[in-house]
Structures are given as structure tokens and as C-alpha cells.
Design goal:
globular, alpha/beta, 2 domains, 12 helices, about 20% strand, Nucleotidyltransferase, domain 5
Length: about 375
């Protein structure tokens, strides 16, 4: 009898699928952004080539309904899919949608062969949440079969949706309102008023809990990146200028609602604005910002551990490419008695998504 295989299609912005057969995992090429037509064409061609002659048992894909990879899964492998797949197989594979941040954390579970539940910290730019909003600042109880969201950074408006990625100053205004107006100096007052009006009237301002967008806002507030010319330019520059010997951070608030703990960051940004007005050096402010994010995560994990009794923590997501965040958070969590696991062989960014999808699909009954 032929062994049946698993296909995990990965994410869209950093596309890399994998196929597993007989416990042998083979990754596809690193294709990049599937929003670029030639990349998507290559993705489709490579996936079809990889599954040729293979009896697939399961196909895992991202929960985001707008992802090209998800649309491909539903169009090509579903029961109503084309007759060209699979001529050799009598059975269609089972389709398994996987939430983006659960996949990030599951990639760590797979790397380290972790069997028990962990508190997962997933900080990244964006991912479709179980509530239909854009997530990216998540604390989840996760294992091989499922997850539960326990805490997150507060929801923020994204004026102009994806335009905030190229124009991070929009996020600074979204978070701080009028108080950020005089601090964002390289954008005309007309444009700033338009963005404030969009936020006030909820015009084209979907919500996100993304830590990546919080980093964008901080970089824009400091004037080091109001307009990004490449991916994560603001967060990269923020890390580069950050002083290494600063211990202080800014205050923040945490509330508890029906979704769990919610971290509010406005105090952090008001603190940064206050230091800017006092003429404090930007490298000091950048360091205090990094420390604040780490401190908020540490306090949240301590609370979640008290609630759940879990002492194992897994961290993943694109923000953990920031060495300051990763090293300081792991050090502080270790000092507080937590065992911390991170992506070692795999990157922390979306190139690890297919591995996490595969891990979850293995145990999906």
C-alpha cells in the first residue's frame, strides 16, 4: 500500500512549502511574496511538480481567506478541484486551515520535539486571527492539536490598511492621535489631518494587534523612518540605533477582558514623546522602547503561568529576528524560571510557517 503524504503550503509573503512522506520532509524553494505574479506562477508550478505521483493525505494552508496559497489549496485540492489532480489517486486530501500564529509556535514545537503545551509568544507583522482581525502580538496556549489565545497587545487602527507598512507615520498618528502631530515633522499637516480624520471616523481603518506595527510607529515617532523603502526598515533602524546599556523602560497598562489580558501601549508612546520634548537622545529612547516591549511580555507570561501552571515558553514570529528583543526576552524569562524555546534551525519569520502547518496537520484528527 502506498504511503500517503502531507503537503503544507506555508505563508504568502515569504513563501516556502514542504511535503512530507514516510517522515521525510522536503522543503520547496524560498519563493518570496506570492503577491508578485511571477512568484505565484512559480509557486503553483513547483507545488504541482512536487505532488505529481504522490498520494496526499492532508493539505495544510493558512487560515487567511485572501492568501494566494489558501486560494490555491481550495481551488486545486478540494473535491470540486480540477480533474488534473490527482489522476493517480482515488481520494482527495483533507484540507486543514491553520491559524498563522499557531503555525509559528508549532514550528518551534516541531524543531524541539515538544509534546506538552507551551505558552507561545508570537510577535510579527500580520496574520489572520480567529476573530477575523489582523493579529501579530499574541500570547497563546499551544500544543500540537490546537491553541487558545490568552493575551494580546491592544487593537490599533491601521489607516489605509497595508499603506501603513510603507508609511509607518500613519501608525504613530493612529496610536497617539493629536499628540503625535507636532512630532512627525516630515509629513505635511494636510496629510496628517486626513489620517486623524480617518481614525476618528473609522474610515478604512481595520484593527490589528501587531507588534510589528508598534515598532513601525516607534520608528516614525523618533523620525528615523516615516516612509519605508524596504521591508521592516523602521524596526531594523530602531534596533540599530538602540543603546545597549540602558536598563529603564516606559510604563504600560494591562487590562483583562473576555479575550484575556490586553497590553495597552499608549503610555509607552507618551513616555517616548515626553523624552523627545526634553531633548533626550534617540538611541536612549529606542533602548527604553525595546525594554518596554520585553517587560510587557515578561509580566504577561508570569501572569499566564500563574493561571495555567505552565513554565515552558516558545517564541517565534518575524519580530524575533530583532536580536535585542530575542536575547533580552529569553534572558529575562530564563531568570524568572522559564524554559524558553525558539527557532534554531528555522528562521523566525514566515519561512517557518509550513513547518508549523505540517506539525499541526500531523495530529489533526
Amino acid at each position: 500500500m502506498k504511503a500517503r503524504a502531507v503537503l503544507a503550503l506555508g505563508a504568502d509573503t515569504k513563501s516556502r512549502f514542504l511535503i512530507e512522506k514516510d517522515r521525510n520532509i522536503r522543503f520547496g524553494p524560498e519563493i518570496g511574496d506570492l503577491g508578485i505574479p511571477e512568484n505565484y506562477e512559480r509557486f503553483e508550478k513547483e507545488v504541482k511538480k512536487a505532488v505529481r505521483g504522490v498520494s496526499l493525505d492532508r493539505v495544510a494552508y493558512d487560515l487567511h481567506p485572501g492568501y494566494f496559497s489558501a486560494r490555491f489549496a481550495l481551488a486545486y485540492f478540494a473535491a470540486s478541484g480540477p480533474v488534473e489532480y490527482p489522476k493517480h489517486s482515488r481520494k482527495r486530501p483533507r484540507l486543514i486551515p491553520v491559524q498563522h500564529h499557531h503555525a509559528h509556535i508549532a514550528s518551534v514545537l516541531e524543531e524541539h520535539s515538544l509534546k506538552n503545551p507551551v505558552i507561545g509568544i508570537c510577535f510579527d507583522g500580520t496574520g489572520f486571527g480567529a476573530d477575523g482581525k489582523m493579529w501579530g502580538g499574541e500570547f497563546i496556549l499551544a500544543d500540537k492539536t490546537g491553541f487558545k489565545r490568552l493575551a494580546h497587545f491592544e487593537y490599533m487602527k491601521m489607516p489605509g490598511v497595508e499603506k501603513v507598512i510603507r508609511e509607518p507615520w500613519r501608525m504613530a498618528l493612529s496610536l497617539m492621535g493629536n499628540s503625535a502631530f507636532p512630532l512627525i515633522k516630515d509629513i505635511t499637516g494636510k496629510y496628517k489631518r486626513v489620517i486623524l480624520s480617518m481614525c476618528e471616523k473609522n474610515i478604512n481603518t481595520p484593527l490589528t494587534s501587531s507588534v510589528g506595527r508598534i515598532f513601525d510607529a516607534a520608528a516614525a515617532l523618533l523620525g528615523i523612518c516615516s516612509r519605508a523603502s524596504y521591508e521592516a526598515e523602521g524596526p531594523i533602524k530602531l534596533e540599530q540605533i538602540s543603546a545597549s546599556d540602558v536598563k529603564e523602560g516606559y510604563g504600560f497598562d494591562t487590562i483583562r477582558d473576555k479575550t484575556g489580558y490586553v497590553i495597552r501601549v499608549k503610555k509607552i508612546f507618551l513616555g517616548m514623546a515626553g523624552d523627545l520634548r526634553k531633548g533626550k537622545k534617540k538611541y536612549l529612547i529606542a533602548a527604553k522602547f525595546h525594554n518596554s516591549v520585553v517587560n510587557a511580555a515578561l509580566l504577561t507570561v508570569k501572569r499566564l503561568s500563574k493561571d495555567t501552571g505552565i513554565k515552558n515558553v516558545a517564541v517565534s514570529g518575524g519580530v524575533f529576528q530583532n536580536k535585542i528583543i530575542k536575547t533580552r526576552m529569553i534572558k529575562k524569562l530564563n531568570s524568572a524560571g522559564f524554559a524558553v524555546y525558539a527557532n534554531d534551525k528555522m528562521p523566525a519569520n514566515d519561512f517557518n510557517i509550513s513547518l508549523g502547518q505540517y506539525h499541526i496537520s500531523r495530529y489533526n484528527k
